[in-house]
Amino acid sequence: MYKVIGGVPIQPVHRASCHCGAVRLEVELPDGVVDPRRCDCSLCRRKGTIVATVPLHRLRVAAGREHLRLYQLNTMTARHWFCGICGIHTHHQRRLDPNEYGLNVACLEGINPFDLGEVPTSDGINHPSDRAPG
């Protein structure tokens, strides 16, 4: 059984891409869009994306790896990937759990992230990795 967002079925292996199509991803989504959320950290609130949780082994760059650009900030742990041609953020490797990607839901082909309705926001301003050990 497929999960559905806005009338569009989420395939068990779904395609995703940046705006210009230079970067294309294949994403295994057997449980649909998992844990969609926004983040209010300094970078994410500027990007405005809704991201879903995807284990590292379930996301593959199918084309355009040479166009991906990496941006890191603060602790230099998270790895934010975007297309060097159109600038769209496609995914990032999380610093709280580096075994997961945050997939930009808007990059899923045929999916409108606004069809998700209300999406919770993570407290990225007070991220646990920014706290001093105590």
From TrEMBL:
One of its GO terms (molecular function) is metal ion binding. Residues 14-130 form the CENP-V/GFA domain. InterPro entries: CENP-V-like (IPR052355), CENP-V/GFA (IPR006913), Mss4-like_sf (IPR011057). The keyword Transport does not apply. PROSITE patterns: CENP_V_GFA (PS51891). Keywords: Metal-binding, Zinc. This is CENP-V/GFA domain-containing protein. PANTHER family: CENP-V_GFA DOMAIN-CONTAINING PROTEIN, CENTROMERE PROTEIN V. It comes from the Bacteria. The keyword Signal does not apply. Signal peptide: none annotated. Belongs to the Gfa family. Pfam families: GFA.
